[in-house]
Amino acid sequence: METHLLYDKKECKVTPNKKAVRLDCYVVGNHAPSVLILPGGAYSMVSDFNEGKPFAEYFNAHGYNAFVLWYRVGAAARYPAPMEDVARAMQFIRSHTVDWALDSQNLALMGSSAGGHLAAFFSVEYDYFNKEYNGVLYGIQPSAVVLCYPVITMGKLTHAVSRRRFLGLLSGQNEQSAASVEKRVTENYPPTFVWHNKDDQSVPYENSVMLKNALDEKGVRCDLHLYEHGGHGIGLAAGTDAEGWIDDAFAFLQSVFTA
Predict the structure, then answer these.
(1) With contact defined as beta carbons under 8 Å apart, do 22 and 3 qualify?
(2) In whole angstroms, what is the distance from residue 142 CA to residue 67 CA?
(3) Distance from the first to the final alpha carbon of the chain
(4) What is the pLDDT of residue 13?
(5) What global pTM score does this model have?
(6) C-alpha distances in angstroms, 66 versus 92, 99, 102, 149, 174?
(7) Which of 2, 48, 54 is nearest to 28 (CA)?
């Protein structure tokens, strides 16, 4: 595994909180597909130990390249900063397609909890952040999306801390609606795999159901897996009802990438 900073000294001088943004790169090459992973943490921390590194190691073991993004959190998590970090990570990965021997087409985005909101919302707004990187304009639309117990809405059923970090303490209805993924999806949204536990006390499982319903209305493939027990923040979910979800997610990605 290699770690790369995503912003240069000049950028960090202008915006000091960019210094903490980095990308852990688990590269296997072999012209294999890639997954960019956004761990959760309520936009307050990056929960790599359960929703970053273990996922990356799984995908490596199954022949995929994997990347874990340490995006801006805490006081630095206000929109659009985390979205800019995802765009930069996508650009950085794309810029290494040749020297790392990556599949030039297939780059999925994966997120958990608040990282799930970031992945899902970026998949709506990616085009707003598609700027030149080192003089090149790279494609940054995800090829597919995998979401683990995601925050989807910024409305009534949201996770309050995540909303406060992302939109600020005094966000209004217009801001909340604009950042609610279920209200923003279009027919161009990427194929999506999402799973959630019904007994999740942190992020209500209805978030995932709302996304499924919205994507069904737009004719976008969305594979939703709901489990009775397991709670929130369980990563690979070993020993719970959801154990094996990542095998289903991998099969989903394989079906999308080989379609």
Answers:
(1) yes
(2) 14
(3) 30
(4) 98
(5) 0.98
(6) 13, 15, 10, 20, 35
(7) 2
Burial of 120 by CB count in 10 Å (0-12 exposed, 13-18 middle, 19+ buried)? buried
Residue-wise pLDDT tens digits, 145-192? 999 999 999 999 999 999 999 999 989 999 999 999 999 999 999 999
Reported as a single tens digit per residue, the pLDDT across 80-101 is: 999 999 999 999 999 999 999 9
Place of tokens 């700027």: 131
Angstrom distance (rounded) from CA 26 to CA 66: 5
Distance CA(1)–CA(11), nearest Å, equals 25
* pLDDT score, position 64: 98
pLDDT score, position 170 = 86
Domains of the chain: 2-257 (3.40.50.1820)
Q: Which residues of the chain have pLDDT under 50?
A: none
For residue 107, what are its two tokens? 């780059």
Token representation of residue 213: 């319903």
DSSP string, 188-252: TPPPEEEEEETT-SSS-THHHHHHHHHHHHHT--EEEEEESS--S--TT-TTSTTTTHHHHHHHH
CA distance 140 to 138: 6
Show Cβ contacts of residue 245 under 8 Å, excluding neighbours closer than 6 positions: 148, 195, 225, 227, 237
pLDDT of residue 259: 78
Please give the single-letter amino acid code of residue 133. Y
Structure tokens at 105: 């087409």
Task: Kindly state the helix (H) or strand (E) to which residue 4 belongs, with its residue range.
Answer: strand 2-5
Question: Which structure tokens are listed for 237?
Answer: 């979910």
